[in-house]
Amino acid sequence: MAQTELQRRMDEWTVALRRAGVKVTQQRLIIFREAASRGDHPDVEAVFRAVRQELPTVSLDTVYRTLHLFVDLGLVSVLGLSGERTHFDANTRPHHHFVCRECGQAYDFYDPGFDVLDLPAGADDLGQVQSTHVEFRGVCSPCAAGQGKANKRG
Ligand SMILES: [Zn+2]
Ligand SMILES: [Zn+2]
Q: Cα 93 to chain center, whole Å?
């Protein structure tokens, strides 16, 4: 990810915490920076494993609760990609996903045309639509080339 994009996310994070009256701590900063700097929609364990280098005493539960705090603040969204595991997405710009059914990886892509779609008839009856998210499913290029995560794992 470009440094400028990471910086934008960090700035947005600082502003959102201040606005909500949530203290900016070193621990929260490290957890958010980890989530925000990766484009792979990590689950809580992946974030936990990464931040333990810098936060040796942090618990999985703390990382989990911290990520959900960021979800409540609108800084991170939740994806339910592979069933039981919650994946976190720190990309707050309107975007869409290509999800690989082999490795479960979700790739971000942007398309202003998909951000605002004409609602199908009857959608209003279900509730008020606030945002649109398009998800493509298929096999990602690394997996198609036999180099995806699923293959590497053996
Ligand atoms: Zn894949
Ligand atoms: Zn995403």
A: 11
Is 0.85 topped by the overall pTM?
no
Confidence band, pLDDT 50/70/90 cuts, at residue 153: very low
CA–centroid distance, 135 to ligand 1, in Å, is 15
3-state SS, 29-40, equals HHHHHHHHHCCC
Task: Name the closest ligand to CA 105.
Answer: 1
Q: Which segments of 38-129 does DSSP mark as H helices, in order? A: 44-51, 60-72, 112-115, 123-126
Q: Tell me which H or E stretch contains 80.
A: strand 77-82
CA 21–ligand 2 middle distance (angstroms): 27
